[in-house]
Amino acid sequence: MNRAADGGNLGWSRGPGTAPGKTSREGQQALALHPSRATPDRTAAVYDRVGPFRASVPSAPCDGRDGTPFPTAALRCDRHEVRHEAVACGRSSWRGGVPRNCAVRRGSAIYKRPPVLRSAVVCFGHQRLVCSRCSAQTREEDGMRSVTRSLTTVLTVAAAVFVPTVLVAGQGGSSTNDRARFVGTYELVRTEAKDPATGTWAPTPNYNSNGYIIYADTGHMGVHIMPKVRARFTANPPPAAEAQAALRGYTAYFGSFEVNDKDKEKFVMHHRFGQINPGGDKDVKRFYDFVTTPNGSQQLILTPAPADGGGKDKAARRLVWNRMLDAPLSPEEKRFVGFWRLNYTDSYRTKDGKEVFHGDRVETRAGTSYIIYTASGHMMVHLMNKEGRMKYAGAQPTPEESLQAYRSYNGYFGRFVTYENQNPPFVYHSQQGSTNPGAYSEQKRYYQMTGNILRLGGPPNLNDKGELAGGHLYWEKQTAVK
């Protein structure tokens, strides 16, 4: 019997390299599971964790070993309230299940103990800590997305595929300061299209994307949106045709934003400093609505203005974003929060603990690249060459144009965790998506923060001279946009 529903412990088998926890009867590591307060459509469980654990779920649904499709589910993970699809296919063995005191919504039905206990796969730790009470076998995908790390994590499996949004009194009307309401991190929930005959909105068929949009109180903004299923590159650098496929459906840009909440049709302007499309419009208009769902989630609906300059009633598509709650960040993590612009990069070499070289200052992407950390524990990177980017000749890029755009603009998004008590201290960037398809990983960055300058550098490599060789990126924290 699973004692989790009765307030007992749920056993977890521990992968190699993870931090120690409690020990179960089988001698495996375990985590204490305590029931938490439940709402009619949400049942929560609090996992007390020791050490640098993480929760992860695979990125896309697949079939089980018996050929039965896994149902689509969603994980609402503690303060992030992150949606994810069910399970993923890959190369190695994977086990997973949904604890009894979690809930899964499929269609209009809610199961506090799903009849098919394979709606989600949960694991912990950098080396993956896997639930030991499992009901189905799946296969792990190499690029599993990290979900969260904190000493106390609320893991809720809840409403997923489509939760209708409704305007709530005071939420959809005028605000004395809508600009302040924009500030935060939002996850893309779905896209919708308008039926031209009836004027009603409906979810886009076969929607399969994920991404985030971030607005800062300094007036900066950034966005990444990508298809969930993308073919991996077969070489580095990739063939031109593969670069073209990788950019198809991928949106990424950064800049500033300006809110007009005085007009009847309120809108926000995104003033792009840079974007993955080297010739895209620099200013884009989005009509907006703030809404609240029946389960209390705060959402932002952005409706792109028609290209012909028409009003909101002429728009044909819109994007629905779910606001991410602020995370209980550590004091050190709070120092990271903000928009940081790249000043320059350099390189160094050390041998026997002594520096033998430090120089090669490079400014190829200086001033046109940003790294973003948010109060919700998310992060985002935009790295763009400041010169030499060529506008596409047509509406869609050729393979060669795609390769040039890809090589001059890189980025990724996900979550971050600092380990300031290590020597030297480092931050983990847990990627959920990247311009490089399928290459999602834990990016370890040693850091040094001096005033408003953040120096980041990956682990060095050993060269043929027996030296440790590495590089640094120097980022400057941004103040209010002028």
What would you say this structure looks like, in words?
The protein has 482 residues and is mainly β. It has 3 domains: 155 residues, no CATH class; 146 residues, Lipocalin (Beta Barrel), CATH 2.40.128; 147 residues, Lipocalin (Beta Barrel), CATH 2.40.128. Helices cover 6% and strands 43% of the residues. It is built from 4 helices and 33 strands. The strands form 5 sheets. Strands 1, 2, 3, 4, 5, 6, 10, 11, 13 and 14 form a 10-stranded antiparallel beta sheet that branches. A hairpin with an 8-residue loop joins strand 3 and strand 4. Helix 2 crosses helix 4. The longest helix is centred in the last third of the chain and has 9 residues. It is globular and about 70 Å long.
Which structural category fits the helices and strands?
mainly beta
Q: What distance separates the N and C termini?
A: 61 Å
Task: Give the overall silhouette.
Answer: globular
- Spans of 5+ residues with little confidence (pLDDT < 50)? 1-175
Mean pLDDT: 72
**How many discrete structural domains?**
3
Sheet bearing the most strands, described?
Answer: 10 strands, antiparallel
The percent range for strand residues is 35-45%
The number of helices is 4
Helix content: under 10%
Radius of gyration computed on alpha carbons? 23 Å
**Strands, count:** 33
